[in-house]
Amino acid sequence: MKKGILPCLMLLLFTGFSCLFGQTESEEKSIWEQLIEKRNPLKPIGFGFDSEWIAVKTTETEKLLQVLDLKNLEKSNWVEGTLKTNKGYVFVLPPVGGWILISSFDLPSPDSRDEKEASRSRALLNQLSKSFGEAQMFGSLRSSSSAFWMKSVNGSIERLYSIVRNHSTIEGKPTPVEASWTLFDSSSPDAETDEYWFSALSPDMETVMEVAESWSINPLKVETYKGLAEYGYTGILKKE
Predict the structure, then answer these.
(1) Which of 46, 59, 92, 185 could form a disulfide with 8 if both were Cys (CB 3.0 to 4.6 A apart)?
(2) Domain count, the chain
(3) Which range of residues forms the domain containing residue 209?
(4) Do the Cβ atoms of 228 and 94 come closer than 8 Å?
(5) Whole-number mean pLDDT of the chain?
(6) pTM summary value
(7) Structural domain includes residue 236
(8) Does 43 map to a domain?
């Protein structure tokens, strides 16, 4: 395991607990919050487990902020931005490796049972790819046994794979990173057999990270990039 990844993984293991043990302002802070607050606020903080994020192919932060049109927009360091992702905000990270990542626990999800939310997810990604050429969305949540990845190019969804409690949604052709996998397909006739359930790949958090690293940026490895800016931006996505 590369240097810098292990501490990040240890910290991120507590990310899921923040949702289970998140506190009100009058109560003690969660373990996750306490760990994040101890970090250097001007240094990158990796993320990705039990969360959702978007990768946009651009380094133009100001233009991206104009397209997102966030409410309550504020400049935020890495600690402030990371903490706010658990409070209904999105954190627009500084550019990294030719991409800008947008992290939040409150992004609209393409695998949501709420059709309106799923539609918002697609519309947001298509809007971003129409403006910047390509945008991707990823997520993995242990609480709902879900994982997904979605890619939009020039305003249209080209690839989507999502699985929630053994129900899959699949659109587009597998990308190179997926080529060797037999991804679980709940609509397949083979899904009626025990052999299929044992042989097909049911993606988890590690699978999502593998796709993210192939397509753009693995957010767990943000800390390994040198020279990243000390501040990003936080704000609230409009829901209309």
Answers:
(1) 46
(2) 1
(3) 5-225
(4) yes
(5) 90
(6) 0.87
(7) no
(8) yes
